[in-house]
Amino acid sequence: MSRFQVVSGKGGTGKTTVAAALALALATEGRRTLLVEVEGRQGIAQLFGADALPYEERRIAVAPGGGEVHALAIDAEQALLDYLQMFYKLGGAGRALKKLGAIDFATTIAPGVRDVLLTGKACEAVRRKDKQGRYVYDHVIMDAPPTGRITRFLNVNDEVAGLARIGPIHNQAQAVMRVLKSPQTAVHLVTLLEEMPVQETADGIAELRAADLPVGHVIVNMVRPHVVDEETLRTAATGRRKEIAKTLTRAGVTGSAALVRPLIEQAAEHAQRVGLERGQRAVLAGLGLPTAELPLAGDGVDLAALHDLATELRKQGVGEGPDASGGTDS
After folding, report:
1. Rounded (10°) CA dihedral 243, 244, 247, 251
2. Residue 327: inside a domain, yes or no?
3. What is the reported pTM?
């Protein structure tokens, strides 16, 4: 199974919720997952009802079977200080640069630098092992930037490796890309059954494939149930109001046209929505990727709802595959 799982999606599709549910799903039976946030929104803390996450790995949930979900909100400035200490032993000098505002300048003025730091920190967690040579985390899940910029975000180290042809920066960028382009990684895209998110998902998949980045599942989120059978859908879609009115009367629904008309209109709207959703499902089916569906949480998403979504992801095999635990780095 992929040890590094990246979750992206168009804004509003619920990618943070899906990333959190996936972390719970993969932390079953005693496994440990790290859920990484890179956009500074503290969305993970809100979902788990926790305080704002600091720049340190912290346990935020326990999964069925005793597994643990840890979380980390990566701060680009702190990651740069780590980087300077790791490769150049500039711990004190780095802190002095921070006081002068140079660190903030570097991570703000050059978005590529920021992305290098964020992806590098996440990949370090993927590769990290304990003293016994075992991976510290069985899985690392990243709540990543939106679909529109996910390929550039993940591929930035390839550009850096080409610019810096020798030295620690080049070596670090290559090490990150070895993780990102290996079977250890899967990029999942979250969408809704709506035209714009589906089109952006299709475009994102094409970009990821062109960059040789491994695509995992398409996860259709917030799927609403179909509340009528096929025959009723056909009847509602054709607008046969008299036939519908007679059916309602036989079912004991009597009254004026003012009562029947709104019911018919709602049924017609439902039939239209179902038709549109089926069209988008056909588009997704043509992408040639495994697809999973998560139901709409009618009462909002809390920790109980996250566990329910995690169960659905486990049932549908998202993130699962041949066991890669205990393997070596690529």
Report:
1. -160
2. no
3. 0.84
